[in-house]
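User: You have something folded?
Assistant:
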Amino acid sequence: MSRMPPLPEYAELHCVSNFSFLRGASHPEELVERAAALGYAALAITDECSLAGVVRAHAEAKARGLHLIIGTEVQLAGADGAPHAKLVLLATDRASYGNLSEFITLARMRADKGAYRAHPADLEGKTPGHAHLAGLPGCLALLVSEREVSFERLFAQATWLATWFAGRAWIAAANLLRATDGVRIERIERVAHLTGLPVVAAGDVHMHVRSRKPLQDALTAIRLGRPVAECGFALASNAEQYLRPRIRLAQLYPAEWLAETVAIAGRCRFSLDELRYEYPEEIVPPGETPTSHLRALTEAGARRRFPNGVPDKVRTLIEKELALIGELRYEAFFLTVEDIVRWARSQGILCQGRGSAANSAVCYCLGITEVDPERCNLLFERFVSRERNEPPDIDVDFEHRRREEVIQYIYGKYGRQRTALAATVICYRSRSALRDTGKALGFDPQRIDRVAKSHHWFDDGRDGGERMREAGFDPASPAVAQWLALAAALRGFPRHLSQHVGGFVIARDSLARLAPIENAAMQARSVIQWDKDDLEALGLLKVDVLALGMLSALRRALEFIGRKLGRPFALGDIPDGDRPTYEMICAADTIGTFQIESRAQMSMLPRLKPQNYYDLVIQVAIVRPGPIQGGMIHPYLRRRNGEESVDYEKDEIRAVLERTLGVPIFQEQVIQLAVVAAEFTPGEADALRRSMAAWKRKGGLGPFRERLISRMIARGYSPDFAERIYGQIEGFGEYGFPESHAASFALLAYASCWIKRHHPDAFLAALLNSQPMGFYAPAQLVQDARRHGVEVRPVDVSASAVESTLEPCPMSAGGHAVRLGLDRIGGLGLAAAERIAAARCERAFASVEDLMLRAGLNAAELGALAASGALAPLAGHRHQAHWETLGTEARRTEMLRSARFAERPLTLPAPSEGENILADYASLGLTLGRHPLALLRTRLARMRLALEMLSGKYHEGDTIHVERGEAGLVFTAVHGQPA
């Protein structure tokens, strides 16, 4: 019996993942897993002009012990756009990786988002400022021949490659059993003989298993924008672009070509673990170190925060934190964030740190966060931990209207070569997967849309036969079955890169040599090709520069209050523990405030009855899916009201849960429970923290359930108690608040409530001037303020500024009336509003014509003013104003103005109340008249209709028709949690 010959060693050097968007049909992790299972010596991930998927592949390769090679595939094109050559470029060491990343950045940054332009001149050192990229030092290059390349063209390409990559160049031969492969491989061998370039086997892999071929075809169709049936030769002719078994490869390639793959892999020893991230140090004054400067700023901040002396508790925290920050070499990171915050405040931009950074006494002393470590139980280890071995994450909220100033400050200070936003990977979800695969199969777009809109059955894996029939499909059809299978496979695939909401990566040197940078869709923005999870996996630091509408509103409100009082007024001037404010909160009178203004929060407030700051912290956190799904709310309320006793079982549980009456309200408590009750190590606790948020998506809580329950029982806890704790942890997988996050938000919640209670006029004006933001539409905010006694005055070209303002009015709550601003008028435009306000500052308008000429208004702008009622002082009611604007426009030319003729005044009838109300909503989005349904009350009563507001899946401005005997108007459609 003959023995099987030994399998050849093999390294796949040309493999694209689904991060070559709409080309690759497998996740990087799937490719790595399959390559390891097949016994490959190495695998190169070579996505097209991209390194977006390599961190995921790196993590999987480390877990499976597979040698991962970092590379890219790139199509070179001449200045005229004509194709020059396709190359696979592989990094061998840290320096060559930097060259590769910089080359990708160069090609990406000269093109629009999602595209690239790589020229032969880039690799010839002829691109200004990039001469050092000539020959891409240290990188290995594989020439990928076209399917039907001529001998002459292949020879020219190989000669060029041999010139610029001497000793580092190969011709890749892909035998995919296509009709033209035999001729092409013969030409490759001839060119190799003439140029001296060696030949290497390469699979041009697009999927980990051949069963992904239908999905690869669908991706091609989606990319080309036409059905699979019309894609023709653009589709792969067979399913050979997969990771093939080595026995199969031995049948297809000469042994020396396979051996060459292993030799090349042996030269590529670079690992992403070699990346070392260093933060900029120009924020450190001469003669100081990052350590000494951070210490100095912290001490100065501590003296400012605690003028009567730093409490012992805070001093202990400061020393502990500084020691750990120094050990982990994070000083420059903290200094960079402090510099950004200090600059923003110097420009009058309100900002506040939140999230895990609020656990830090150092951040409090630096002015980054506002949570007093003396008042709260801070858990610094949730922010920075030696055991977790991951970078700290500092989130800072800035006024949403002025965040762009902060972003441009960062770009200006560090330059676009050293800073960029982190990416966000936009993935296919059920609706988009159903739509795109349905189009790829050629189904009717309208019927596809009906199925995609009702995708919840698809999400849950339920039988959708009835939905399919309703949309006009036969559920038993093989084509429909294929559609659903393709959509399920596509769900979760990356679709494109977008920019993170505000996560900045800032490097000491060139960021482009750390990770490729490309243009974002938004002008003057650039992003690196890695997302926040990639950055965290490699230990790279980012600072989140986020936008918060309430900060914009608070800053404006503080300015209004300062003008009312005749002195500056800041957040720090708001008194703590104000009883009238807490009475208002307990009465759920919180429309327009921060975090506690939703219907769910308002229904909870009279039951929880917050009496102090920490009660507000709990209030912010408790109305979240985590506590709700974990069944924590009712036990907490019963215990708070003295209706139920608290049983902690053990003192270690009491230490964690006593402040929340025995139920976990915050994420930190859930993690602490696992540590004290089930003896989780810091590493296990951190893994639990990560899995909680992803358990639905990845099914990652199963192993923790068994471990947690069994350990708790072994330590003497009852099975019922252990099961209850696990149920609470599972509930937090639905989203729960960290205590530090809730503590930061509670400060802003209280501030907004205090201003609403004591300065309702300033509160309304500030909210109107900060739109869009919050839960409620301007119409509801105005109605609420009027119910509280605030006089609201209409838009008026003779009195209104660009934004809403305060006008003295002793009869109005707060002492001032709110004058609506010109910016409320639909169709007017900011520039026109500014011209009107500027012209009126010189002198009052005498007529509509005077307004038109001095403010330079066109017919559309005059029409918008007339429709809003803002011309009432100059022209009377809306009908009259419209007539006047038409006459004014006709007299616009100098000739007509100098040759006026006598015109009999025309008096038009005034619009009815109903017409005015409808016009108000059409122009301003609100009315100062009666509610529209008040006009119909008598008629509706005769029809026995109840006047009530409805909630549901409606859009702003919709009229609701129902069968239950109700009627109403939708002002705001709200989905999900408040920010």
Q: What stands out?
A: Confidence is low (pLDDT under 50) at residues 695-699, 947-954, 975-979.
